[in-house]
Amino acid sequence: MAYLIDRRINGRNKSAVNRDRFMRRFRGRIKEAVERAIKHRSIKEIDSGEKVSIPARDISEPTFRPGRGGVWESVHPGNEEYQRGDRIPRPKGGGGTGGGEASSEGEGEDDFVFELSREEFLNYFFEDLALPNLVKTQLASIKDYKTTRAGYTVDGTPTNIHVVRSLRGAIGRRIALASPLAAELHKQEEELHRLEAAPVPDMLRINELREQIHALKSRIYRIPYLDPFDLRYRNRVQVPQPSARAVMFCLMDVSGSMDENRKDIAKRFFTLLYLFLTRNYDTVEVVFIRHHTQAEEVDEETFFRSRETGGTVVSSALELMNEIIERRYPASEWNIYGAQASDGDNWHDDSPRCRHLLAAEIMPRLQYYAYVEIAEAEPQNLWREYEFLAEHFKHRFAIQRIRRLDEIYPVFRELFRKTNAFAY
Predict the structure, then answer these.
(1) Phi, psi torsion values for 362, nearest 5 degrees
(2) DSSP single-letter state for residue 161
(3) How many whole angstroms separate alpha carbon 65 and alpha carbon 49?
(4) Which helix (DSSP H) or strand (DSSP E) does residue 413 occupy?
(5) How far apart are CA 55 and CA 96, in angstroms?
(6) Based on CB atoms within 10 Å of each CB, which residue in 136, 226, 261, 270 is the most buried?
(7) Dihedral sign from CA coordinates of 376, 380, 386, 391
């Protein structure tokens, strides 16, 4: 009988297999708990775990136990009403008194509460999100490899031995070693037959030939049928695989019209986007661009922490984005994405230029562009220009508005939901 021993390392008092089975069974309730949690959390708490409560009645399992049959008697302390032999009337409303609802005093039946880890919480949060149209491939992205066969090698493990190739080599070796001996053997056998058929046999020569023939046959028989030298093993090597490479451009307006509340919303949106990208796509690069009247490429820390102010020229950020694409991210090799957050305020003459830059130079290179306008008032000129782009580049250019903090998550999920999206 074979025994299978699971030696996977689990935490103390935890079973990974049972936990996965439990989470699959109550997937709906866990998903609801995650959705409730993200509506009330700050962006700094988004990647922490979550406690999920499931009513005890939903996890109850049917059980079987032996009943108490026959005739039995019991004595209850404190009985002042009945005596031995009295008949007890049947309770009104059916048998039994249990099953009633909990009273207002005290607590009812406790719910089953368990805690999702950080990894589990993020899996549920991002499971239906993806970068759209992630389809381009480039062999030079280096990280992905595939194991393929690469001929044969003279050493390896027994499981990789190639029987046919090994036997073919053994046959060739035996033919090469035995052919000269076989030719000499055939020659001496013919001479022996000729001498034995002679009227006066030369017994001295005949005996000599017989010894030589015996020696040749012994040498042929001693050639091994299969030698370790003949063994050949399947050889496998790792070769680079075409892998999708992507870059996300994050453009944020830090001009004076973006007050601290709007900047805070924009930073929360980009923090959520950054968390989504770094968690789900190992090969996605992120380029951070901040702009007021001038745009500059900054690092992650400066993008989220630094405070600046000034006028608004949105086209400066788009021009810098276009320059970086031309210099570092060829459209033939990269999946290029853009996400922009602004309050919509811009120089009146600059908004048509933004539209032209996107339509003529940037969008033909991009897979997807998402614009988020953070404003409570009516849409301004930049929004109206972008509306034309959204109509022209359907499914590749999306625009959304955020007015309050609690709208960040719904807008983010709408922009990056998996519908009509292809991800690797």
Answers:
(1) -90, -50
(2) B
(3) 39
(4) helix 408-415
(5) 24
(6) 270
(7) positive
Mean pLDDT across the chain, nearest whole number? Answer: 77
CA pair distance 15, 17, nearest whole angstrom: 6
Mean pLDDT of 163-181: 89
Burial class (CB in 10 A: 0-12, 13-18, 19+), 253: buried
For the chain, how many helices (H) and strands (E)? 12, 10
Kindly give the residue spans of alpha helices, DSSP state H, lying in 41-162: 56-59, 118-126
Q: Is the pLDDT of residue 289 over 90?
A: yes
Q: In the numeric block, which tokens belong to residue 38?
A: 């993200």
User: What pTM value is reported for the model?
Assistant: 0.53
For residue 158, the Cα-to-chain-centroid distance in whole angstroms is: 33
DSSP code for 282: T
Phi-psi bin for 173: left (phi > 0), alpha (psi -120 to 50), beta? alpha
SS3 category, 51: strand
- Going by C-beta distance under 8 Å and a sequence separation of 6 or more, which residues neighbour residue 142? 240, 243
Residue 242's alpha-carbon distances to 101, 216, 235, 276, 283, in angstroms, are: 62, 59, 22, 23, 12
Joined tokens for residue 104: 């207002």
Cα separation, 279 vs 344, whole angstroms: 30
Strands 368-374 and 397-402: parallel
Structure tokens at 120: 């589990």
Q: Which CATH class is domain 246-415?
A: alpha beta
Kindly report, as residue ranges, where domains of CATH 1.20.120 are found in the chain: 158-235
Under a CB-based contact definition with an 8 Å cutoff, are residues 362 and 321 in contact? Answer: yes
Of the candidate CATH numbers 1.10.3470, 1.20.120, 2.60.40, 3.40.50, the domain formed by 158-235 belongs to 1.20.120
Least-confidence region, from 30-44, 97-111, 117-131:
97-111
Tokens of 138: 């480039």
Mean pLDDT to the nearest integer, 87-95: 64
The residue with greater pLDDT, 157 or 2, is 157
Show Cβ contacts of residue 353 under 8 Å, excluding neighbours closer than 6 positions: 315
